[in-house]
Write a structure and sequence with these properties.
This is Eukaryotic translation initiation factor 3 subunit D. Residues 112-168 are annotated as: Disordered. By secondary structure, the chain is α+β, with helices and mostly antiparallel strands. Among the domains are: 111-176, no CATH class; 199-321 and 332-436, no CATH class. It is built from five helices and eleven strands. The protein has helices at residues 7-13, 199-204, 256-263, 273-280, 337-354, and strands at residues 29-30, 33-34, 213-224, 269-272, 292-296, 299-303, 356-364, 384-392, 402-409, 411-414, 421-424. The strands form three sheets. A seven-stranded mixed beta sheet has the order 5-6-4-9-8-3-7. A two-stranded antiparallel ribbon has the order 1-2. It starts with 6 loop residues before the first helix and ends in a 13-residue tail after the last strand. The relative contact order is 0.11.
Length: 437
């Protein structure tokens, strides 16, 4: 049987310089205890952390964000030389661990969106305008009230709960023709600008005037058919019927009655109701238009051009989904603004003639229709009365300023209580399907 070897004695008898193993130096020992070098930026934690997310904070798996809330997946001190780094016995490069973290269901937002608490809101929607880019809602609540949570849509959709975002484009909006706002007339470079009024100032203008007085009346009126006020019954709806009646839309300076009143010096300013209504709607109108101002001595006439936009009735002019101009080669020419305006004007003309009761019962004005000539016009005149009204626009007694306006009335009806005649203006509201364009 082999004799037991005294290893302690054997080690003690070995020379000091012929030993084996790592040399003991002061660089890798602390009070005689070996240790591994480390970085002061590393935090003391668990030896193995299986709960940290392997992706970056933006969820795109790109470059990892090293901030104070992020911990590296590598072992602390791995960036330095490890003293006791023994080679692995097996290749562990293909080894992976299944994450045991709970993945909660999250709403998927637009590409490039950042969803953070707060919301600056504002008219442009967060910090992402309609030009695109990343929409970021930061913490705070300025320029749009308080915001619940920031918005989404990286193309300028909702920028924050505190305010509206940019325009959200729909399917093939890029392929739709743009809304062209061509000028109604060509501005010449030699024209001199006398006054410029912005829309904000124009919308606040107001002038208190007294009740107008009737100067004279022309034409005749039929009574209104009250059956059109009732709700239509199924299979008994009254369809629009084309009725040939002579109607006129004469400009101010060509009106023989206004010319006669101007010679009598009845007022200093003359206009029609359609021209004044267009001027009053200037802050809200979208389509281009112009008014011709003619001055003769101390008289001013507000005129319109022949076949101008003032003669047409627009459709959804200032709506959110206004009609678009038809693109070249497009077959959809029905819903373009010019076609809709022509249709609406045709409807208004025929509807006003259809809702009156033509017969012997009519109301004649003191004077006949000033524009109707029986020898030239083949169609009978329409039910129309022209009332010339005068308004006092004077701001002081030293400079009297009066306005005479030609107004139009379409029908008359009896008051249900007093039995007196009441004048009516009949209009038809035409709409179109914005989804069809």
């Amino acid at each position: 049987m082999a004799q037991n070897v005294d290893w302690v004695t054997l080690v003690e008898n070995c020379p000091a310089g012929d030993g084996w193993g790592p040399s003991v130096t002061s660089d890798t020992t602390l009070n005689g205890v070996p240790y591994a070098p480390f970085s002061k930026g590393d935090k003391l934690g668990r030896m193995a952390d299986w709960t940290a997310d392997g992706k970056g904070q933006d969820g795109r798996g790109g470059r990892q964000q090293y901030n104070r809330n992020y911990r590296d997946q590598q072992v602390y001190g791995a960036s330095h030389a490890v003293t006791f780094n023994a080679p692995p016995a097996e290749d562990e490069s293909s080894f992976s661990v299944v994450s045991n973290t709970r993945d909660s269901t999250k709403t998927r937002y637009g590409r490039g969106a950042v969803f953070t608490r707060g919301g600056r809101g504002g008219a442009r929607g967060g910090r992402g305008d309609a030009r695109g880019g990343r929409t970021t809602a930061t913490r705070g609540g300025a320029a749009g009230g308080r915001g619940g949570y920031g918005g989404f849509d990286s193309r300028g959709g909702r920028g924050g709960a505190g305010g509206r975002g940019g325009r959200r484009f729909g399917w093939k909006d890029y392929d739709k023709p743009a809304r062209n706002r061509d000028a109604s007339i060509n501005i010449r470079p030699d024209w001199k600008m006398l006054e410029e009024i912005d829309f904000n100032r124009l919308a606040k203008l107001n002038l208190e005037t007294d009740e107008g007085e009737d100067v004279d009346s022309y034409g005749f009126l039929y009574y209104y058919d009250r059956s059109y006020d009732k709700a239509p019954v199924k299979n008994a709806e009254k369809k629009l019927t084309a009725i040939d009646r002579a109607a006129y839309n004469v400009t101010t300076s060509s009106d023989p009655v206004i010319q006669e009143l101007a010679e009598k010096d009845e007022a200093q300013i003359f206009a029609t109701d359609s021209i004044l209504s267009m001027i009053m709607c200037a802050p809200r109108s979208v389509y281009s238009w112009d008014v011709v101002i003619v001055r003769q001595g101390n008289k001013i006439f507000l005129d319109k051009r022949d076949n101008a936009a003032l003669d047409m009735v627009t459709v959804n002019e200032n709506a959110a989904d206004a009609p678009l101009e038809a693109s070249e080669g497009s077959k959809d020419t029905v819903n373009q603004p010019s076609a809709l305006a022509e249709e609406a004007t045709y409807i208004n003309h025929n509807f006003a003639n259809q809702v009156v009761l033509e017969g012997n019962s009519k109301v004649d004005m003191p004077n006949s229709n000033p524009f109707y000539n029986a020898s030239e016009d083949t169609d009978p005149p329409a039910s129309k009365a022209y009332k010339y009204r005068r308004f006092d626009l004077s701001t002081s007694d030293e400079e009297p300023v009066h306005l005479i306006v030609r107004t139009e009335v379409d029908a008359v009806q009896k008051n249900a209580i007093s039995g007196e005649d009441q004048y009516l203006t009949v209009k038809a509201l035409n709409e179109f399907d914005s989804k069809a364009q």
